[in-house]
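REQUEST ID: PR-0412
SUBMITTED BY: lab tech R.K.
PRIORITY: routine
TASK: structure prediction, single protein chain
INPUT:
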Amino acid sequence: MRVLVVIALLLVQPAYADEASFVVIVNPKNPATKLDKKTVADGFLKKRTRWGDDKAMQPIDQKRSASVRAEFSKRILDRSVASVRTYWNQIVFSGRGVPPPEADSDEAVITYVANNAGAIGYVASTAKLDGVKVISVK
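STATUS: complete
OUTPUT:
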């Protein structure tokens, strides 16, 4: 019986592993409906600073201790939160830029994105998404 339970759990696990625990959001005025992973990563690492319509891209991060940030960093930036912090320390020290602002909660990210036309952020997939638009990231 135990073997069957273990096998059943192993069969179910891949479905959950592929489910996103976060969604990427933009201001509703942003015409984007989908972005590739590289575009999103470049925006958050500020390697890309403008949208296609030349509006300034305004990324907002979650606080460093947020589990949603760890998942976003892993899946989109292909880095750990610590690695992203090291990246930004080098950029700041060399005078080439500053990291995105950090928000304390999903609600704070949603408010920022709703109030800034060029904003892009990410929140837990369970967050109440009033005033923002979810975009697909492939």
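NOTES: The chain has one domain: 20-137.
REVIEWED BY: pending
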